[in-house]
Amino acid sequence: MPKISVKSSSPRVAFLLSQVGAHSAARYAERIAPLNLKPSHTGILRILGEGPGLTQQALCDLLGMFPSRLVGLLDELQKMKLVERRESPNDRRTYALHLTKAGRDTLSKLEEVSEQVQDDLCAALNAKERALLSELLTRIVKQQQITPAVHPGYRQTGGTCGNESSEKKC
Predict the structure, then answer these.
(1) Burial class, 12, CB count within 10 angstroms (exposed 0-12 / middle 13-18 / buried 19+)
(2) What would the mean pLDDT of 35-51 be, rounded to a whole number?
(3) Residues with Cβ < 8 Å from 43, sequence gap 6 or more?
(4) Rounded CA separation 49/15 (Å)
(5) CA distances for 155 relative to 61, 67, 118, angstroms
(6) pLDDT bracket for residue 7 (50, 70, 90)
């Protein structure tokens, strides 16, 4: 199949960011598929690795997603023995979330995959350019009031925890 070339004047930054973001997300999903994980699983594992004992409600609020969707993802992670729910020491009606040993081991593998994807994606940049790109993107995240270190895809699953009366509670 012949490669089609589309010529355009200078593409806008928003389009380039979207293009690179979609490409990066697809490469990441391909790389984690052998681990039987979805990208939505990996973000939860990373957050719990940094904040063990987080309640389902707090995680739901951080991610900004429907409680039933989060509960489903946590059920999947628990079935894979990567996450465990423990009664909260402060409130027995809530659960504190923790990574299991297998979850911590998987998180370590995911960090390696993330580094590989980043290295592949940024191969055309030297270390100084990578640092500058990271700094500039971080400034955009802050200015746009995007929750740092939380993929906006979680919010696309709808709503925020506690605001959906018909949804299952975290």
Answers:
(1) exposed
(2) 94
(3) 63, 150, 151, 154
(4) 33
(5) 10, 11, 24
(6) low
